[in-house]
Amino acid sequence: MESRERQRRIRELSEKSKRRALERGIERVKAEMSGEIADFSRKYSFADSTASEKLKKLIDELTCDSFGIDFDKFPAHRKFSSQSTDLRNRTAWFCSLVGGEEIFEIFVKGRVCDFLADYDDWYFYGAYMLLVDEDFGGLIYIDDNGGMTEAFLR
User: Fold this and answer.
1) Higher confidence at residue 29 or residue 79?
2) What are phi and psi of 103, to 5 degrees?
């Protein structure tokens, strides 16, 4: 019995240590983003816990395959380029679909045009970039070649 209790305690301490390490990693990446992306604090903000949970749920529900997101599962979608549409006033959440565990816990809000203007900086944090509309009504997926697809969620 004592051995079982010790094993349980070791598991608890191990999980706590992993959570702390993840939290430190998240804070490190946030500090990197804030320091490396020009005018970060003026253009962008980090998600609070409520928005983070909504975004995680949405991402978990996306149907993906080895080629990316399966857009045929959405009510509507279209391919486009940043020159073909007016993105100045649209606000979205940046979500990375590749990277270390800590990057999946970080969501950043900003104007779509700023994300595109700073694309080279954001590419480092997500070669496959997902920009989810602030109101969660749609998303823009940018693949590793810069190809853009917009999908509508409702």
Assistant:
1) 29
2) -70, -25
What's the whole-model pTM score? Answer: 0.84
Phi then psi dihedrals of residue 87, to 5 deg = -115, 10
Q: How far apart are CA 66 and CA 98, in angstroms?
A: 13
Q: Please give the single-letter amino acid code of residue 24.
A: R
From the list 33, 36, 35, the residue with the least C-alpha distance to 109 is: 33
Q: With the CA atoms of 117, 120, 121 and 125 taken in that order, what torsion angle do they form, in degrees rounded to the nearest 10? A: 120
HEC sequence for 82-145:
HHHCCCCCCEEEEEECCCCHHHHHCCEEEEHHHHHHCHHHHHHHCCCEEEEECCCCEEEEECCC
How many whole angstroms from its chain centre is CA 132?
9
Tens-place pLDDT, residues 41-76: 999 999 999 999 999 998 888 866 555 687 777 778
Q: How many helices (H) and strands (E) does the chain have?
A: 5, 9
